[in-house]
UniProtKB/TrEMBL annotation:
Keywords: Membrane, Transmembrane, Transmembrane helix. Belongs to the RUS1 family. This is RUS family member 1 isoform X1. It is found in: Membrane. The lineage of its organism: Eukaryota, Metazoa, Chordata, Craniata, Vertebrata. Residues 292-451 form the Root UVB sensitive protein C-terminal domain. InterPro entries: RUS_fam, UVB_sens_C, UVB_sens_RUS_dom. Its main location: membrane. The gene is RUSF1.
């Protein structure tokens, strides 16, 4: 309710002015509106707000940070962008050293070299890179979302390898074209992997359907960093142009900065979506402590090197004809199964194959992969240390390890029943801990099928 105090004289005091409302720009206090005795609305800016809006600091934030920062982005945005800026600067410097070496190698400054020879070398380099881009996108494109952090780190390491090849290429004139073409091949792989994972990380950071704004501001930040690197290179190149040893020394120094900053950048990212490595860590923690850890606990434990290996090979979203040709095996997979997936386990070969129903949603996909991870845990993990239904897990483990001798052919049905019992609580724990369950990054193949449940067959 608004109260206006009447003036008792010609002099107006602070008590005669009432605040009607306040507004802010993001998390920063902006201004308050007051009702004057004459009925007009007065706008009064806070001292801090007035300073921010007139300062270079605010102008800088408006140009290089997403609108609404920090509320409009994820909490890990600032840490990631800080380290990403450092790595981009280091990469810009090493890239300049590589460009100088390549230009020298193709004959710039050499009177005996021809334009035609340099042009052919450049065309071969670009053509090889184009082929590499197509081949890599075809073979790994569907996997880049699932392990964005790992592929981002891989791309930057490969970029450093490619730059090193370009720097040393002039020292091997007989193999110069081959080295340059190989480097171009690697750099195009870097372009695909880096661009795709950047898009995945931008989607993670954007919290107000502002992915385009976050991406645009990231581009502005990178442009500013590259400009700073360009200016630094203007002073660096005259120093190293005729000194090969100094070129190698600067490359080594800035590569160390680049790799360290990249590691810190991807380690700073805290993803709330479940991929295979994160779900594996979450389930291990849940079995041991009977509580679901938060993304902040699990992300620092996630391996950042590609090739995350499990003790069992899990084929997710497989077609039936690659799994079995036996009706008996198919019926066995249906036994005791009311879920939207079928699981086949070939214990002698250590292969788990998961078939998904056409109606399977994200929760079904998470449950299916959890089932596979549970099988792996029962085979290789010590259930004595588990707090979650220890006796049931020990019993299942004992029966599963003897399954090859056919002492209890119903073991897989029992595992289904056990998972059906614990999964609702596990799913609720995931949601409560802050994990996203309506989408996932588990990366199943696109094969889907339909089957009749055991209950429907009996009708």
């Amino acid at each position: 309710m608004l109260h206006i105090l009447k003036s008792s004289g010609p002099v107006m005091t602070d008590l005669e002015i009432q605040t009607l409302c306040m507004e802010s720009y993001g998390s920063r206090s902006a201004r308050r509106y007051q009702v004057l005795p004459n009925g007009k609305l007065s706008s009064v800016a806070d001292a801090s707000e007035a300073w921010h809006f007139r300062s270079l600091h605010h102008i800088f934030m408006s140009i290089f940070l997403p609108q609404g920062y920090p509320e409009s982005v994820s909490t890990d945005y600032l840490a990631y962008q800080f380290w990403d800026t450092i790595q981009a600067f280091a990469s810009s410097i090493t890239g300049t050293l590589a460009t100088q070496a390549v230009l020298k190698g193709v004959g710039v400054g050499d009177e005996t070299s021809t334009v035609a020879a340099a042009t052919v070398t450049w065309i071969l380099k670009d053509g090889t890179g184009m082929l590499g881009r197509i081949a890599f996108a075809w073979s790994k494109g569907s996997k880049l979302d699932c392990d964005a952090k790992q592929w981002r780190l891989f791309a930057d390491v490969l970029n450093d390898v490619a730059i090193f090849m370009e720097i040393v290429a002039p020292a091997f004139p007989a193999c110069f074209t081959l080295i340059i073409c190989t480097s171009g091949f690697f750099k195009c792989i870097v372009g695909v992997a880096g661009g795709a994972t950047r898009a995945a990380l931008t989607m993670h950071q954007a919290r107000r359907d502002n992915m385009a704004d976050v991406s645009a501001k990231d581009g502005s930040q990178e442009t500013l960093v590259n400009l700073a690197g360009l200016l630094f290179s203007l002073f660096l190149i005259p120093i190293v142009v005729d000194n090969l040893l100094l070129t190698y020394a600067f490359y080594a120094l800035f590569t160390i900065f680049h790799l360290y900053a990249n590691y810190q950048a991807v380690r700073a990212v805290c993803m709330e979506t479940l991929n295979r490595a994160r779900l594996h860590l979450v389930l291990q923690h849940y079995l041991k402590w009977e509580e679901v850890p938060t993304p902040a606990v699990i992300n620092p434990q996630e391996p950042l090197l590609l090739g995350f290996r499990q003790q069992l090979k899990i084929t997710f979203g497989a077609p039936l004809h690659t799994v079995t040709s036996s009706v008996a095996d198919f019926q066995k997979a249906l036994e005791g199964n009311s879920s939207n997936y079928l699981i086949f386990f070939k214990q002698p070969t250590g292969v788990i194959s998961i078939l998904l129903h056409r109606q399977a949603d994200s929760v079904d996909v998470i449950k299916a992969y959890t089932h596979a991870l549970l099988l792996e845990a029962l085979l290789y993990q010590d259930m004595e240390t588990c707090a979650l239904e220890r006796r049931s897990l020990l019993s299942l483990q004992h029966q599963l390890r003897k399954e090859s001798s056919k002492e209890d052919p119903r073991i897989h049905s029992k595992i289904h029943q056990f998972l059906d019992r614990i999964f609702p609580k596990f799913l609720a724990g995931l949601t409560a801990a802050g994990w996203v369950t309506d989408r996932n990054l588990l990366g199943p193949e696109e094969w889907r099928m339909e089957w009749l449940s055991a209950e429907k067959k009996m009708l």
